[in-house]
User: What shape does this take?
Amino acid sequence: MGEIDLLHGYLILGALLFGIGLVGFLARRNMIVMFLAAEMMLQGISVSLVAWGRFHNDWGGQMMVIFILTVAACEAAIALALILMLFHSSGRLDVAAWQHLRESNQQPFVDQELPEAQVDEQTWPELAPAGIEPEHSLDELVHRGHV
Amino acid sequence: MTPTETMTLVATVLAALSLWLLLPRGGRWGRPVGVVLGLISLGIFVSRLSGLTAMGFSDEASGAKLMFWVLAAITVISAAGSVTMGSPVYCAIWFAMTLLGTAGLFLFQGAQFLGVATIVVYAGAILVTFLFVLMLAQSEGHAYYDRVSWEGLISAAVGAAMIGVLTMVISNALAPVTPAIAKASATKVASANAAPEPAAKILIADPATAEERAADILSAQHMDHLGAQLFSKYLIAVEVAGTLLLVALVGAVAIAIQGKQMPKTAGGARHG
Assistant: This one.
């Protein structure tokens, strides 16, 4: 029967989205990317809730997702305002710029070796020659010069 | 340990390795290996979904299954891309792809309003605001902190362990009861002399029938039903959400202007 298999698929998809978002939130250092990862975890929850709502023929799941959307919009507004303020005071979007908020018995984090910036060779596109040069009539050129 | 549990474990380990290899680090050599490992791990996860993989095209639900596979593949692959891309702009674009995938999944789950709202609110508003902030904050291009990540192996292992545990719990909760559920939902007769069910199976003990779904959650008058529910049963929640939006708006403005130096000279405070 298809319904419970569909529920299974949607729940596992939600788990995958949640786990991938978790990895992103833990591993990335750019505050904006961390925020995107948190939103992705919310998406995983939403997929699961909608699937449960369909399975039980209950509107509660969809309602919950509507309010998740609302809260995500509020959260995005506040968080982006905060990120902008943090950027203005530190000049970076790096969370490691705020590590003086750590506990007093923790060691500071120091970047050991930073990878080289990969500078791509800028190759500009070349225009292929298109068409052929039309024949110029000498007569016309001379005449046009006088006009 | 049953073979399916072993397979889940293998898939989890592969997922952890692949995410670790994909996360931005120094060298670039890990990327293709990470992609291959991730696809293998995804394939193993898919093979757990026994009912959905047995796809016969004579089946009337095969269209829904095919749609599910396409959208799920788009969603998961772009989610991995959005987490592992180096440039935050690419992250945002991949995340937009994830949102489109989930919006499509919502459309196929009888949540048309949510599908459209996800595109409008998330992809249209939130993501564009992200891109604006990126342009304001990081206009000079790649920064060093986008090329490194915190403790890549540990965080990938934590995330993959989360995925593995959730997959195992979900499969164990859903799998053994499937034939009984199918029979009960076909005949809609609750067997009175059945053994007491464990708590995890209560959630799936009462599926709706196809007729009930077609009349309510999958009906063509989707907005009709949704609005009736939203403005009767959830009315107070709607009001609270509206207040929350207003408070967030005022709060965001207050945060944003707090860092600005107000002009002390005449002109600033004389309005009103």
Remarks:
- The CA atoms of residues 17 and 43 of chain A lie 7 Å apart.
- Chain A touches chain B through 83 residues (CB under 8 Å).
